[in-house]
Design goal:
Layout lengths: L5 H12 L4 E3 H9 L7 H16 L5 E3 L3 E4 L7 H17 L3 H12 L13 H28 L3 H14 L4 H13 L3 H19 L5 H12 L30 H11 L10 E5 L6 H11 L8 E5 L11 H11 L11 H12 L5 E5 L4 H4 L11 E5 L4 H7 L2 E4 L5 H8 L4 H9 L4 H11 L4 H8 L4 H7 L3 H9 L10 H8 L3 H13 L4 E3 L2 E3 L2 H10 L3 H23 L22 H25 L2 H10 L1 H7 L2 H18 L2 H17 L3 H18 L2 H17 L3 H18 L7 H13 L3 H18 L2 H17 L3 H18 L2 H17 L3 H14 L6 H17 L3 H18 L2 H17 L3 H18 L2 H17 L3 H13 L7
Parallel strand pairs: 4-7, 4-8, 5-6, 6-7
Antiparallel strand pairs: 1-3, 2-3, 9-10
């Protein structure tokens, strides 16, 4: 029954707060009467205790002790203790990474609060003693709960909660910080910055202080779009791609269109043709927002993934190339980068084959023509396609069976819902906006909390875009127009700063104004235009050409800066003079790679724009600067496109240095692709151009690459000539010795392949010394690995293992995964020689793990050979046979003769052990012929030793002896 008497409630509260513990009589007197206790204090207290026992219905619940009273109930039966315990479990779950469980527990704990602590307990003393502590626990629980929700990506969910918390506790900076982060992650950067301005004002007015350091640092991070503020990526199955853009906040209406499109995209029942839905409408009518809304609504119908691409068919810059979209899709579907075809038709075929049997949704946004869409169409009826376009794409309807849905403007009621207003003036504003979501959104932002009638007066005969622009500061208006020169899909505050020639912090504030006016869209520090707004910006831009040149030069300097951090020894065109374009926060190789990853699409668009509209030199300077990054990231499609644009521009401008750099670029690309003939052709042309210009150093660099390609192609004589010529040219040019390491290493590999081990050791030792002297970590690792191989072939396994251990340690420390894989593979090969097959297999497994994200296919081939050899030694002949065949196929596909020879020898040995002597002999003879033709003496010896074993197994001892004799003669130095 309820405890109505105030003193009884105070007594129960005092005992409950310390349930299970003794509360002394002195404490109880203080809690009940404060400084004015009654004359018969103890007797009155006893009476209250007796009455409370009666009210509780069980006298044993309150026990009398020598100096006080104790409430005998489990703590979990008292809500304050349940709150504390539940919040503690939530905290532990969060620390253990069980975020969803933590969120539920925090919600349960906070749900126990039904108002202020001890609100109906008439005891000032008790409230003064307990309420501050309880209130602090509550606020901390709120903070921790919000942190968990933010970590789960639920930023939209917590914004209303944080609005209430900042209103109730305006001096608690942590709540303001969380609100700013939540707003920022919800693409509401302007509101996040407004929250900072509000707390700044509150703290100044109430306390006379400014926000603390943490809040100020967060404000600055939001201004510059610090990537660390981005929402956490949802942990999903990596094999299930989900590329859908986020839903537009505040999406309203369109119920009939949503239902119709949903039925067309995902109809009930079986279907034989691919459902293709073309969503058409005028600019600004909300096609993209509706497509994203439908796609998110249907996501559970497509468990194998959702693919999205903005084809930029109506953007001021170039449309997105189909090969770029296909490459992105193929990567999302798990195709290793080096296995993605360069030819668009082959890409399209592979894409369709990968979608067969899957249930996936494709959203192709902003298509201008059927030809942009057709190469991206799947062949599986279980993979529908939703296309948005300003045109009706009749070709898709007539030829491909697409269904068209015409999207009209919003209804008057939907327009008012989007405005968040009602009344006659709001209806007039909706009409003046043409009921277009884009115009309504801009008008709503301009309105703020003001009068619609006054807004209409200011609007006059203009459209909302002009009024929104006029309301901006002159600097923001200027930036808005100049941003139209951006050729790529988005831009950052740093790019905006170069466009407008202002400091980055100033550009960030101006972008904040533009985002607040809904003239640009901001997501996690990156901004973009709606196509219509980009064209509007172009129409009001002043001195756009100078802005465009500043932006492109910024990209050139930024790429040069990143290249210096990533590949300081890679031969490139001379860097642009250092200027104001230094990249803030890009001081390490990892930061440089992250910046290039984020800007890759913008840089590709800039190269194309410069090639087509000038300044032409920017195209080949950017393409040259990106070569090392595109090589390491295996961005083959972008690499080919950018190099070709640079080549065409340099050729048209008759710039010899630029054309030579682009031939070198394409030579490197085709070398990476294993197309040695094409690579040699481009490198040869680059050598000729450098010779014409008298650039000995550049000619030497390309000669070195040409020699390595010919070495890998098996043309050892030409390789030796190129490498030795390169070394002579470098020494003639008088450049730093650091440029000799790659040449010495190439000559060392050549000596290893021809069995000249003493010469190989000298060359590689010299390469190692130069690398150590000049701090060339990659060169040091390569030289140590190859010295390990030399020691192995010289019969010194312990020295080999020592070199390889050093190489592996350095590669791991530097994060060079391919180099680590090469060291592991070589170590595994030494373990094989020692008969340690299980250890070798474990090392090979580790090497493959390093290569899993798309490593060098030559290294992968060698690892497969080692794995197969280990399995053969362990008696797993079927597994070994399959792995040798995989290695043989891979080596043949990429044009890697040494790997092909090793795989043939290994496969011959397995077939011999399986008793298939005829096939084993054919394989061994094929290996002998290949190694003789290429002059690979150690590989030839291994092939002849295996052929001798095959002859012996077949009972032909004379033939076996003859082959062993030939093998032994190969141990003699060449020419002896």
């Amino acid at each position: 029954m309820p405890v109505r008497a105030g003193k009884h409630r105070a007594l129960l509260a005092a005992l409950s707060l310390r349930a299970g513990r003794v509360v002394s009589i002195g404490e109880l007197v203080a809690f009940l009467w404060g400084d004015s206790p009654p004359a018969r204090t103890r007797g009155t207290l006893q009476t209250y205790v007796m009455r409370l026992r009666q009210l509780l219905g069980d006298p044993s619940l309150i026990r009398t002790t020598s100096d006080g009273y104790r409430l005998v109930v489990p703590p979990e039966q008292v809500d304050v203790h349940r709150f504390t315990a539940t919040a503690g479990r939530a905290r532990q779950a969060a620390r253990s990474g069980r975020l969803a469980e933590a969120a539920d527990l925090y919600a349960e704990a906070l749900g126990l609060w039904r108002g202020p602590a001890l609100a109906d307990v008439p005891s000032d003393s008790l409230r003064d003693h307990e309420v501050p502590r309880l209130a602090e626990r509550l606020l901390v629980a709120h903070e921790e709960h919000v942190d968990v929700e933010l970590a789960l990506g639920n930023h939209e969910r917590v914004i209303p909660v944080l609005r209430a918390l900042t209103a109730d506790y305006p001096l608690r900076e942590r709540f303001w910080a969380q609100l700013m982060v939540a707003l920022y992650r919800g693409s509401r950067q302007a509101e996040a910055l407004e929250a900072f301005r509000l707390v700044d004002r509150v703290l100044d007015e109430q306390l006379g202080v400014e926000p603390g350091a943490a809040l100020r640092e967060l404000h600055q991070a939001i201004l510059v779009g610090d990537p660390s503020l981005a929402a956490p990526v949802e942990q999903v199955d990596p094999d299930v791609p989900d590329q859908l853009p986020p839903e537009v906040p505040g999406f309203v209406g369109r119920a009939e269109a949503v239902d119709r499109i949903s039925r067309l995209v995902a109809p009930d029942g079986a279907r034989t043709a691919v459902p293709i839905v073309v969503l058409t409408g005028v600019p600004g009518v909300g096609k993209t927002a509706l497509a994203a809304h439908v796609a998110h609504r249907l996501r559970d119908r497509f468990p194998d993934g959702r693919l999205y691409a903005d084809l930029r068919g109506y953007a001021p810059g170039p449309p997105t190339p189909v090969v770029e979209v296909l490459t992105r899709f193929l990567r999302a579907l798990g195709v290793p980068p080096e296995q993605i075809p360069v030819d668009p038709d082959e890409q399209s075929t592979l894409f369709r084959s990968l979608l067969a049997g899957r249930r996936m949704l494709l959203v192709l946004d902003n298509a201008a023509a059927p030809d942009q869409v057709r190469p991206l169409l799947p062949g599986a009826a279980s993979c529908p396609v939703l296309v948005t376009s300003r045109d009706d794409l009749r070709g898709l309807i007539a030829v491909d069976g697409a269904r068209r849905v015409d999207l009209d403007v919003l209804s008057p009621a939907e327009s008012l819902a989007l405005l968040g207003r009602s009344g006659q003036a709001a209806e007039e504003l909706a009409r003046r906006c043409g009921h277009l979501p884009l115009a309504l959104d801009v008008a709503s932002a301009s309105l703020g909390g003001g009068s619609v009638a006054r807004y209409l007066e200011r609007l006059g005969d203009r459209d909302p875009l002009h009024l929104a622009l006029d309301a901006l500061t002159p600097a923001a208006r200027r930036l808005f127009g100049l941003l139209s020169v951006v050729p790529g899909p988005d831009f950052t505050p740093e790019a905006a700063a170069r466009v407008a020639d202002v400091p980055v912090a100033a550009a960030a504030l101006l972008l904040d104004q533009l985002a607040g006016a809904r003239l640009v869209r901001g997501v996690a520090g990156r901004y973009s235009f709606h196509d219509s707004l980009a064209r509007f910006a172009a129409s009001v831009a002043e001195d756009a050409e100078a802005a465009r040149t500043r932006l492109l030069e910024f990209y050139v300097r930024a790429v040069d800066h990143c290249a210096e951090l990533l590949y300081p020894d890679l031969m490139r065109l001379p860097s642009a003079p250092a200027g104001q374009a230094r990249l803030a926060g890009v001081e390490t190789a990892a930061q440089a790679r992250a910046w290039l990853d984020a800007e890759r699409a913008n840089l590709a668009a800039a190269i194309r724009a410069a090639a087509e509209h000038g300044p032409a030199a920017v195209s080949w300077r950017l393409a040259d600067g990106l070569r090392g990054y595109l090589w390491s990231g295996k961005h083959v499609t972008e690499w080919l496109l950018t190099a070709q644009y640079g080549m065409d521009a340099a050729h048209e401008q008759r710039d010899v240095a630029g054309e030579a750099a682009m031939h070198q670029n394409l030579g490197t690309l085709h070398w990476r692709l294993g197309d040695f003939a094409e690579s040699i052709e481009h490198y040869t042309r680059a050598v000729e151009l450098h010779r014409v210009s008298g650039d000995l150093e550049s000619e030497a660099g390309v000669r070195g690459n040409l020699g390595v390609v010919r070495l890998e192609a098996g043309d050892l004589a030409s390789a030796r000539n190129d490498l030795e010529t390169c070394l002579a040219l470098r020494r003639e040019a008088g450049g730093p010795r650091s440029g000799e390491t790659a040449v010495l290493t190439g000559l060392g590999v050549l000596a290893v392949e021809t069995g000249e081990l003493a010469e190989a050791a000298d060359l590689l030792g010299e390469a190692l010394a130069i690398s150590v002297e000049h701090g060339l970590r990659a060169g040091e690792i390569t030289a140590l690995t190859l010295l390990g191989v030399v020691a192995q072939q010289a019969g010194e396994p312990q020295r080999a293992l020592a070199h390889l251990a050093d190489a592996l340690r350095l590669a791991t420390e530097a994060g060079f995964r391919e180099a680590a894989a090469r060291a592991l593979e070589a170590t595994a090969s030494v373990r094989l020689d020692l008969g340690e097959h299980a250890e070798a297999l474990d090392l090979a497994d580790r090497a493959l793990a390093e290569l899993r994200e798309g490593g060098d296919q030559r290294i992968t081939t060698n690892v497969l050979v080692v794995m197969a050899s280990a399995n053969r030694g362990l008696g797993s002949l079927a597994v070994a046979d399959e792995q040798f065949q995989q290695a043989l196929t891979k080596a043949g596909r990429i044009g890697y003769p040494p790997g092909e020879a090793r795989a043939l020898v290994g496969l011959a040995g397995v077939r011999r052990l399986l008793g298939e002597h005829a096939e084993a002999r054919a394989l061994a003879e094929q290996a002998v012929a290949l190694t003789v033709r290429l002059g690979l003496r150690p590989a030839e010896r291994a092939a002849r030793v295996e052929l001798a074993a095959v002859h012996r197994a077949a009972g032909d001892d004379l033939a076996a002896a003859a082959e062993l004799d030939r093998a032994d003669r190969l141990l003699e130095p060449p020419g002896s």
